[in-house]
Amino acid sequence: MPKIAIISASIRKGRKSHNVALYFENYLAQKQLADAEIIDLDKYNFPLFEERLRLIENPTEEMLAFAKKITAADGIIIVTPEYNGGYPASLKNIIDLLYAEWKRKPIGIATVSAGPFGGSQVLTSLQFTLWKIGALVVPAMFPVPTVEKAFDDDGTPTDREATDKRAGNFVNELLFWIKAKSSAETNS
């Protein structure tokens, strides 16, 4: 069973995007599609990094543990809110901390917003950043408009059937690229 890390990118008080991360953790477990673990950036309390991990003289145990989780994951789901048309600094900070760990890593992006567009403005900048470091951003996306109405605080969607259908398409695309990467590595 593949390992999927779910990055909950927001560290703001009252964040609603974390509810979507909880949903994916539950969805993957209930459907027995992957071993999933949430990497909650709010729990790390990382400083702003002045350098990549490999160049930091005395990395903390938290930095090393984070890098190990990213390396061990077969694929990643990033759940990010849209803040003023962009993604949070907490996410950019951890993306820039690592480099080789992201290379050819299949990544699915779930975006959320309080408004009607589901974080669609954040996609271009986040995709570009991930492509620049060599990540495999899968073509399927999971936008969530009016997130505070779509999920409750424990990750339960208000419309389970429609949400599970969209999640199925999104997760299946990520699993396809995880399998394709594994197959390519086995045959090379």
Q: What is the CA-based Rg, rounded? A: 16 Å
Instruction: Quickly count the domains.
Output: 1
CATH superfamily: Flavodoxin domain
* Class computed from helices, strands and strand pairing: alpha/beta
Domain NADPH-dependent FMN reductase-like: 2-145
GO molecular function: oxidoreductase activity
InterPro entries: Flavoprotein-like_sf (IPR029039), FMN_Rdtase-like_dom (IPR005025), NAD(P)H-dep_reductase (IPR050712)
EC number: 1.-.-.-
Detail the topology: elements first, then pairings.
Blueprint: E1 3-8, H1 17-30, E2 35-40, H2 41-44, H3 61-72, E3 75-81, H4 89-97, E4 106-112, H5 120-132, E5 136-144, H6 147-150, H7 160-186
Parallel strand pairs: 1-2, 1-3, 3-4, 4-5
Brief summary:
With 188 residues, the chain is α/β, with parallel strands linked by helices. It has helices spanning 17-30, 41-44, 61-72, 89-97, 120-132, 147-150, 160-186, and strands at residues 3-8, 35-40, 75-81, 106-112, 136-144.
Could you please describe the fold and organization of this structure?
This protein is of the alpha/beta class and 188 residues long. The chain has one domain: Rossmann fold, CATH 3.40.50. It has 7 helices and 5 strands, in the order βαβααβαβαβαα. Strands 2-1-3-4-5 form a 5-stranded parallel β-sheet, sandwiched between helices. It is globular and about 45 Å long. The relative contact order is 0.18.
